[in-house]
Amino acid sequence: MKAYAGIDLHSSNNYLGIIDDNDKRLYGRRMPNDLNHLLMALEPFRSQLEGIVIESTYNWYWLVDGLHDHGYKVHLANPSAIRQYEGLKHTDDKWDSFWLAHMRRLGILPEGYIYPKGQRPIRDLMRRRLLFVRQQTAHILSLQSMITRNLGFKMSNNEIKKLSLKDVENLFDSPHLVLMARNSLSAIDLLKRIIKSIEKEVTSQVKLRKEFVMLLTIPGIGPILALTIMLEVGDIGRFAKVGDYSSYSRCVESKRLSNGKK
Fold first, then answer.
1. Are the CB atoms for 67 and 41 separated by under 8 Å?
2. What is d(CA 95, CA 17) in angstroms, rounded to the nearest whole number?
3. Where are the alpha helices (DSSP H) in 172-258?
4. Are the beta carbons of 165 and 185 closer than 8 angstroms?
5. Mean of the pLDDT values across residues 155-173?
6. Are strands 25-32 and 49-55 parallel, antiparallel or unpaired?
7. pTM attached to this predicted model
């Protein structure tokens, strides 16, 4: 008899549901996010399990890696591609876990990409760089707005990046405005150093693979952005068609219509 497992994962707990090939529920229980607890629950079904489905939540790394290390076949469900039966009036974590197992049994599970464990840290480091870049830009725009609001002229981003602490003392006559400007410049400078340190680390560890070298021929894409794209994409072969990659890159409009309503 074959068995299929689904795990509805949350930040501190999960619900494990296991069914057989007739959709009979063999096991169902909520438990803490502890790998040993899950392994003990799964062990009686190990020889029967065709696969374990985990919904792609923000905290799936530890669970997928742990189950892989213990020899289980794991599937990462793509939540944005899963459509629940529209006639359902009520769902919960228990129902969701069995639904994941049910889709795996029927062979209709929309699967997500399990990014290789060894390459994840460097990819996530570049993601953190993007966060710091956004924060730096926010501080630059805030200081830019403050200058325009109080002085009546606009400084470009590059001009603001060149400002020194002495410059802002000469710009404003209010000590409170000077303090705000100095704090913004300090934050901009700190973030700049953090971003540079990340870029230095990544460029020393990773080089563009040959299938991504062409990215450098696109105007506006330099080595850092090219590395970011390459690390986000991972295996380009996982996209069967150009449209799949365009959708992954959020370049395709997404609409859900029912009876002509969005």
1. no
2. 8
3. 175-205, 223-233, 242-248
4. yes
5. 91
6. unpaired
7. 0.82
